Every structure is written in structure tokens, then in C-alpha cells.
Task: inverse folding
């Protein structure tokens, strides 16, 4: 019935592997929306695992919005776009390995445009002295990094933007940013291949850190908007074929 399920699972963390396999089957469309899964007993036999492993895995899939569990009816695959949670968003990004379909990519980029400038303003109002020390330590690391080491530069860039989110005082936005990290670093990894772009971004970061240190929320918002615009201008040619017409990818 479901040939992809018949290979036995062999690993130390069977429940996690069970969940990962079913995420892939559902997100890839190999198991269709509305399809009823075999019973726990049948799944345990097919996968050569215990029923408790299957039960715990199904409960985890249900918590992510991938399936619905009903007594005596078993498990049915959900439309994850309607039922999914933030946990599922992280799983979806991991499944795509940071490369998303254009519609989801544009949705994430739109979210960043809407949220990141005002959060920069909040960081200017709410940052602590300890966070300012972190900002300037990050700037030193960025400016001293080997420009050929795009992986390190990309990680430092993400850490800078994450610190803006943390310094804003909002407890949810940093978690959202961490969920988007694979996508963010995938885009930025392309962005930082150009050394002139890297130098410009680092200059923007220093200006933004100084605005945050001065408590100038208006200037912080303006600089963050400029950073996003700068990213758009350089990223759009790189990923234009992956985004819909009229999209404005942004990075930096």
C-alpha cells in the first residue's frame, strides 16, 4: 500500500526517525492530504518498531499539524498549510534545506520587510549595556573576518540581526528568526560572495549599532530599511529565477 514505509527503521532514536520519515512523505506529497494512515499495529509491523514508538511518533506529527488523530478512526493527513504550527515551519525549512518554493520564500521576505525595521527601532529603545558590548564585539569580528570565508561572514551577519531581535525586548521574534535561519543563511551565502557588498553591509551594521547605542529609534528604523533595500538590489539578480515576477527579495 505504502511501499516507502516497508523498509525497517534502524537507529538509536526510532521515534525521531519515524517523525522525520513521515514529515518527508507528507511534505513531498507522497502521502496525500486526507489520506488515512495504516493503524498503529500495521505501521509497527511495516517499520519493524514497537507500537509505543509509532504512537509517540504520531502524537508528535499531530502536534506539528501534519496529521489528525481521532479515537477509533486513526490518523489522517492534514493540509499542513491550514493546520500547521510554527514547529512545522521549522520542519518545512529543514526539509527544503533552505531552498523554498517561490511563494513561501516571498512570504518570508515580506515578513522580514514588515518586522525588521520596527524591531530595530525597539532595539534602540530597549537595548541593554551588555547587548551593546555584544554589538560592538560582533562588529569587530565582522570587520576582521577573512572576506573569502563566506560561511563565517554569513553566520556573523545572522548573529547581528538576531541580536537586534533580542535587543528589541520581544520574546517571540528571536524564535521566528531562528526558525528562518536555514533560509536566511542560504540567501546571505550568495550575497556575501561579493566583497564590495560585504564591506557595505559591515558599514551599515556599524551605523545601525551606533544608532541603537544612541537610542535613536527613528535612525535605526531608517538604516535597517536601507539595509533591506541594499540586499534587494544585490540579491534580486542572484535569485530572480526562484522568485515570482514582481517579488522584491531582500537580504543583508
Result:
Amino acid at each position: 500500500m505504502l511501499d516507502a514505509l516497508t523498509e525497517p527503521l534502524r537507529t538509536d532514536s526510532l521515534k525521531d526517525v519515524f517523525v522525520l520519515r513521515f514529515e518527508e512523505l507528507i511534505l513531498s506529497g507522497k502521502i496525500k492530504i486526507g489520506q488515512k494512515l495504516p493503524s498503529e499495529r500495521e505501521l509497527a509491523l511495516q517499520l519493524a518498531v514497537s507500537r509505543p514508538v509509532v504512537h509517540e511518533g504520531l502524537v508528535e506529527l499531530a502536534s506539528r499539524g501534519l496529521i489528525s488523530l481521532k479515537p477509533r478512526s486513526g490518523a489522517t493527513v492534514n493540509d499542513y498549510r491550514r493546520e500547521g504550527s510554527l514547529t512545522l515551519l521549522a520542519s518545512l525549512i529543514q526539509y527544503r534545506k533552505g531552498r523554498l518554493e517561490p511563494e513561501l520564500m516571498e512570504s518570508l521576505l515580506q515578513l522580514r520587510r514588515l518586522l525588521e525595521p520596527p524591531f530595530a527601532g525597539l532595539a534602540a529603545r530597549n537595548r541593554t549595556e551588555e547587548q551593546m558590548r555584544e554589538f560592538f564585539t560582533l562588529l569587530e569580528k565582522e570587520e576582521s573576518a577573512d572576506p573569502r570565508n563566506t560561511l563565517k561572514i554569513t553566520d556573523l551577519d545572522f548573529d547581528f540581526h538576531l541580536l537586534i531581535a533580542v535587543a528589541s525586548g520581544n520574546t517571540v521574534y528571536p524564535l521566528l528568526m531562528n526558525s528562518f535561519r536555514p533560509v536566511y543563511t542560504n540567501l546571505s551565502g550568495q550575497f556575501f560572495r561579493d566583497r564590495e557588498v560585504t564591506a557595505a553591509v559591515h558599514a551599515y551594521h556599524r551605523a545601525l549599532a551606533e544608532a541603537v547605542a544612541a537610542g535613536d529609534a527613528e535612525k535605526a528604523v531608517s538604516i535597517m530599511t536601507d539595509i533591506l533595500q541594499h540586499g534587494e538590489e544585490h540579491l534580486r539578480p542572484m535569485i530572480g529565477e526562484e522568485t515570482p515576477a514582481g517579488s522584491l527579495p531582500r537580504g543583508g
About this structure: Residues 154 and 185 are 6 Å apart (CA to CA).
